[in-house]
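Example for tutorial group B:
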């Protein structure tokens, strides 16, 4: 008895056998989309690093011309961010595909770099100390994240050690302290507007990060153990 199908071919009953070559699976869109996101994020990291380097250069020039310690302190912070933008190599376990979150993260990274030294020098020891504490807090957070640091919210592994045992967003906390100290010593309406816009964006970034990371049971448990975002016993 003849069968209508043999192996990978078909028989039509008239001694004609048509061979059908095996079908090869085509790559799905997911790997391509993942690669595209990785390329975009890498490009943004290079851009972010370049912007921080330019900001550091402007602050160095201001220090050389005006001996402004507040500018020199900000150089330390901007240089560290420039380094970590380039040093990050850990691929995200869960990437962020929200255009809104990408826009908020990009703007939140760039806007504080618009802060400019005031025409007159008004440096004070107490505000310089505030800047120094903020810089130390941010650097401690950066070192705890190591190469898991990134601009856009993504799950690059849950970090709960070091300073992260006490607050969930130490890098933001330190940057707020350092930038606030700089604003007090270089107060202008422009700088105040920049600071207000940046604070609104940073709250948006924190919310986006926690919304994404809370899908990880490890981070959800971490949020219960560490309830404070940036200021222990306050917020």
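The residue assignment follows.
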């Amino acid at each position: 008895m003849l069968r209508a199908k043999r192996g990978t071919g078909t028989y039509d009953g008239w001694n004609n056998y048509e061979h059908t070559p095996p079908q090869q699976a085509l790559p799905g869109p997911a790997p391509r989309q993942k690669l595209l996101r990785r390329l975009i994020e890498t490009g943004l990291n290079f851009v972010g690093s370049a912007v921080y380097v330019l900001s550091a250069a402007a602050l160095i020039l201001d220090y050389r011309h005006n001996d402004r310690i507040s500018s020199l302190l900000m150089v330390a912070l901007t240089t560290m961010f420039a380094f970590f933008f380039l040093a990050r190599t850990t691929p995200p376990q869960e990437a962020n595909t929200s255009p809104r979150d990408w826009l908020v993260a990009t703007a939140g990274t760039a806007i504080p770099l618009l802060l400019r030294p005031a025409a007159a020098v008004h440096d004070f020891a107490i505000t310089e100390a505030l800047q120094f504490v903020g810089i130390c807090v941010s650097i401690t957070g950066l070192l705890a994240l190591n190469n898991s640091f990134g601009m856009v919210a993504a799950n690059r592994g849950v970090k709960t050690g070091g300073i992260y045992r006490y607050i969930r967003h130490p890098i933001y906390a330190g940057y707020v302290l350092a930038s606030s100290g700089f604003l007090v010593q270089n107060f202008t309406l422009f700088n105040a507007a920049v600071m207000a816009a940046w604070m609104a964006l940073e709250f948006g970034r924190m919310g986006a990060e926690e919304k994404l990371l809370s899908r990880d049971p490890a981070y959800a448990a971490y949020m219960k153990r560490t309830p404070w975002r940036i200021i222990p016993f306050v917020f």
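The domain at 30-90+111-225 is CATH 1.20.120 (Four Helix Bundle (Hemerythrin (Met), subunit A)). Compare this with the pattern of hydrophobic and polar residues in the output above.
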